[in-house]
Design goal:
This protein has 146 residues and is an alpha+beta fold. The chain has helices at residues 9-17, 21-28, 37-45, 51-71, 116-121, and strands spanning 19-20, 81-82, 89-91, 95-98, 101-103, 128-130, 136-139. The protein has five helices and seven strands. This is YqaJ viral recombinase domain-containing protein.
Amino acid sequence: QTILQSDSSKWLELRRKLLSASHFGRVCKMRPTTGCESLVKQILYTAVDCEAIRYGRSHEVNARKDLEKEIGKEVEKCGIFIVSEYPFLGGSPDGLGSKNATVEIKCPSSAKDLTPEETIKARKSTFWTFDKNGDVGDINRNHHFY
Protein backbone atom coordinates (compact mmCIF):
# COMPACT_ATOMS: atom_id res chain seq x y z
CA GLN A 1 0.00 0.00 0.00
CA THR A 2 2.98 2.34 0.41
CA ILE A 3 5.25 1.30 -2.47
CA LEU A 4 4.42 4.51 -4.37
CA GLN A 5 5.82 6.45 -1.40
CA SER A 6 4.94 10.15 -1.66
CA ASP A 7 2.33 9.40 -4.34
CA SER A 8 0.49 7.21 -1.83
CA SER A 9 -1.95 8.72 0.67
CA LYS A 10 -1.30 5.77 3.01
CA TRP A 11 2.46 6.48 2.90
CA LEU A 12 1.88 10.16 3.71
CA GLU A 13 -0.45 9.23 6.59
CA LEU A 14 2.02 6.75 8.10
CA ARG A 15 5.00 9.09 7.71
CA ARG A 16 3.23 11.69 9.84
CA LYS A 17 2.91 9.18 12.69
CA LEU A 18 6.48 7.84 12.64
CA LEU A 19 9.92 8.94 13.62
CA SER A 20 11.50 8.01 10.31
CA ALA A 21 15.02 6.79 9.70
CA SER A 22 15.83 10.03 7.88
CA HIS A 23 15.27 11.98 11.13
CA PHE A 24 16.46 9.36 13.61
CA GLY A 25 20.15 10.34 13.48
CA ARG A 26 19.39 13.96 14.31
CA VAL A 27 17.21 12.93 17.25
CA CYS A 28 19.81 10.49 18.62
CA LYS A 29 22.63 13.03 18.35
CA MET A 30 20.79 15.78 20.22
CA ARG A 31 22.43 16.93 23.42
CA PRO A 32 20.32 16.68 26.59
CA THR A 33 20.61 20.44 27.01
CA THR A 34 19.37 21.25 23.50
CA GLY A 35 15.73 22.21 23.14
CA CYS A 36 13.74 19.99 20.82
CA GLU A 37 11.17 22.53 19.58
CA SER A 38 13.05 23.42 16.40
CA LEU A 39 13.68 19.80 15.40
CA VAL A 40 10.09 18.76 16.16
CA LYS A 41 8.82 21.63 14.03
CA GLN A 42 11.16 20.64 11.19
CA ILE A 43 10.08 16.98 11.34
CA LEU A 44 6.36 17.70 11.51
CA TYR A 45 6.06 20.64 9.16
CA THR A 46 8.76 20.39 6.50
CA ALA A 47 7.21 20.76 3.04
CA VAL A 48 7.10 17.54 1.04
CA ASP A 49 6.58 19.41 -2.21
CA CYS A 50 9.24 22.09 -2.62
CA GLU A 51 11.32 22.68 -5.75
CA ALA A 52 14.35 20.70 -4.50
CA ILE A 53 12.18 17.69 -3.64
CA ARG A 54 10.40 17.84 -7.00
CA TYR A 55 13.79 17.95 -8.73
CA GLY A 56 14.98 14.90 -6.78
CA ARG A 57 11.83 12.92 -7.49
CA SER A 58 11.90 13.74 -11.20
CA HIS A 59 15.44 12.34 -11.47
CA GLU A 60 15.00 9.32 -9.22
CA VAL A 61 13.98 6.90 -12.00
CA ASN A 62 17.13 7.63 -14.01
CA ALA A 63 19.31 7.48 -10.90
CA ARG A 64 17.81 4.08 -10.05
CA LYS A 65 18.54 2.80 -13.58
CA ASP A 66 22.11 4.10 -13.40
CA LEU A 67 22.62 2.40 -10.03
CA GLU A 68 21.16 -0.89 -11.29
CA LYS A 69 23.52 -0.77 -14.27
CA GLU A 70 26.48 0.02 -11.98
CA ILE A 71 25.81 -2.82 -9.49
CA GLY A 72 24.39 -5.30 -12.00
CA LYS A 73 21.25 -5.89 -9.91
CA GLU A 74 17.69 -4.66 -9.87
CA VAL A 75 16.79 -2.26 -7.08
CA GLU A 76 13.38 -3.41 -5.87
CA LYS A 77 10.88 -0.69 -4.98
CA CYS A 78 9.51 -0.83 -1.46
CA GLY A 79 7.25 1.03 0.93
CA ILE A 80 7.49 1.85 4.62
CA PHE A 81 9.03 -0.57 7.09
CA ILE A 82 7.79 -0.20 10.67
CA VAL A 83 9.77 -1.62 13.59
CA SER A 84 7.32 -4.03 15.25
CA GLU A 85 8.85 -3.69 18.75
CA TYR A 86 8.80 0.12 18.44
CA PRO A 87 5.86 0.99 16.18
CA PHE A 88 6.68 4.71 16.30
CA LEU A 89 9.93 4.01 14.36
CA GLY A 90 10.02 3.39 10.64
CA GLY A 91 11.99 3.72 7.48
CA SER A 92 11.08 4.34 3.89
CA PRO A 93 14.07 3.52 1.68
CA ASP A 94 13.90 4.15 -2.04
CA GLY A 95 14.60 0.49 -2.71
CA LEU A 96 16.13 -2.80 -1.71
CA GLY A 97 19.40 -3.82 -3.34
CA SER A 98 19.44 -7.27 -1.73
CA LYS A 99 18.13 -8.97 1.40
CA ASN A 100 20.33 -6.87 3.67
CA ALA A 101 20.85 -3.70 1.65
CA THR A 102 18.57 -0.69 1.51
CA VAL A 103 18.96 2.01 -1.13
CA GLU A 104 18.44 5.71 -0.57
CA ILE A 105 18.56 7.74 -3.78
CA LYS A 106 19.55 11.39 -3.54
CA CYS A 107 19.45 13.75 -6.51
CA PRO A 108 20.30 17.15 -5.04
CA SER A 109 19.32 20.11 -7.18
CA SER A 110 22.58 21.75 -6.06
CA ALA A 111 24.39 19.10 -8.13
CA LYS A 112 22.17 19.58 -11.16
CA ASP A 113 24.81 19.42 -13.91
CA LEU A 114 27.40 17.34 -12.08
CA THR A 115 28.35 13.67 -12.23
CA PRO A 116 28.23 11.73 -8.93
CA GLU A 117 32.01 12.03 -8.69
CA GLU A 118 31.92 15.80 -9.31
CA THR A 119 29.11 16.15 -6.76
CA ILE A 120 31.18 14.46 -4.08
CA LYS A 121 34.37 16.39 -4.88
CA ALA A 122 32.45 19.69 -4.93
CA ARG A 123 31.11 18.69 -1.50
CA LYS A 124 27.51 18.98 -2.65
CA SER A 125 26.96 15.69 -0.82
CA THR A 126 28.01 15.19 2.80
CA PHE A 127 27.67 11.40 2.80
CA TRP A 128 31.41 10.97 2.12
CA THR A 129 34.60 11.77 4.00
CA PHE A 130 37.82 13.15 2.55
CA ASP A 131 41.37 12.16 3.44
CA LYS A 132 44.13 14.65 4.30
CA ASN A 133 44.96 15.02 0.59
CA GLY A 134 41.38 15.99 -0.19
CA ASP A 135 40.61 12.69 -1.92
CA VAL A 136 37.26 10.99 -1.39
CA GLY A 137 37.38 8.51 1.47
CA ASP A 138 34.66 6.34 2.97
CA ILE A 139 31.05 6.80 3.93
CA ASN A 140 30.70 9.57 6.51
CA ARG A 141 29.74 7.63 9.63
CA ASN A 142 28.97 10.91 11.41
CA HIS A 143 26.26 11.83 8.92
CA HIS A 144 22.76 11.79 10.40
CA PHE A 145 21.60 9.27 7.75
CA TYR A 146 24.27 6.71 8.68
